[in-house]
Amino acid sequence: MVLGIEASNILAGGGITHLKELLTYADPLSHGFEKVYVWSAKKTLDQLPDQPWLEKRTHPWLNKSIFFRMLWLALIFPKEAKKCIDVLFSPGANHVSFYPQVSMCQNLLPFDDQENKLYGLSWMRIRLILLYYAQRKAFRKAQGIIVLTPSNIPYLTSKSIIEDKKFCVIPHGINPVFYYKPSLKSLNDPIKLLYVSIVDVYKHQWNVVEALYGLIDKGYSVELTLVGAQYPEAMDKLKSSINIHPEYANRITYISTLPYDALTTTYQSADIFVFASSCETFSLVLLEAMASGLPIACSDKDTLKDTLGEAGVYFDPYSPESVENAILTLIENKVLREELSCKAYEKAQTYSWSVCADQTLQYLSKIAKP
Questions:
Q1: CATH number, domain at 50?
Q2: Angle between helix 153-160 and helix 123-141 axes, rounded to 10 deg
Q3: Strands annotated E in 177-311
Q4: Which burial class, exposed, middle or buried, applies to 195 when counting CB atoms under 10 A from its CB (0-12, 13-18, 19+)?
Q5: What are the backbone angles phi and psi of residue 71, rounded to the nearest 5°?
Q6: pLDDT per position as a tens digit, 243-260
Q7: Residue 186 class from Cβ within 10 Å (0-12 exposed, 13-18 middle, 19+ buried)?
Q8: What domain range includes position 321?
Q9: Which residues of 85-99 are buried (b: 16+ CB within 10 A; e: fewer)?
Q10: What is the pLDDT of residues 276-294, one digit of tens each?
């Protein structure tokens, strides 16, 4: 058999990480695939590993705008795919005229009405609406759908009329460079809070900032480091929140990007990790914090609970007071803090890119054989 991977819309972020790790750890021969083709833009293909069984393919249209990529997907790719592959995997959830195919959900935002309304009347909201209809079509037509946690499934079945039997839960893995056994050290002075994630409307960094102010007003010596790119409107909201108390501005550090080696050091030097997202398909960042042995105050969304389990303290991401109380619980209770650090570290070790790759190829083989 021959496997094809259509990755025309995998251009950055977690999608690239998943594809790169999948192809690094995959053993397609053991699952009956003698060859794997990947179609994508050249800048994506350049980041993928070289394997003896892997052939990377591109096209001039794949290296242009989304308009040209969609034309390629509709007019050129189906004919090319039918000539050379037996099953198609679309990790970006594009609909392709091909049978059989497996799609994958890596973005719940289009399927969460409460969260995508946070964008108001904006181009991003329009984009999410268009993605909803496009991905719903892809999921309905696919013979199988990979989801990252069990809690992803209700989002898709409730709005998309998709059969439960189509789903296969395969979580992402963790890069071993993040493993750092909990040191169970005393808290720094000041206490170092860390939040790694893009500044966006559903990430609620401003509520974490307000929680920081509440802790400072109670007499706690704390500081917050925010790491991640930015959505402009959300960054404006974050700046407004910081400006409420300019006298505390020196307690907050914002870093837009960090290389991997610097990011691991940042995790290891922190005291408490805070994650306040209200919509996540699967959080690699949360998994990195777990692998780093950090005590974690986390948003109480089900998809995050699937990953963190009983290894964290949960809060309502919309409530600064709830965020503050969760952080305060970790600051005040040393025994709980150490217990949760160890639990998070141990749970992170159950996530593996090797297992992810093996389960993915096994599932693709199952879909291909009938």
A1: 3.40.50.2000
A2: 90
A3: 191-196, 222-227, 252-255, 272-275, 296-299
A4: buried
A5: -60, -45
A6: 988 888 899 999 998 887
A7: exposed
A8: 176-348
A9: bbbbbbbbbbbbebe
A10: 999 999 999 999 999 999 9
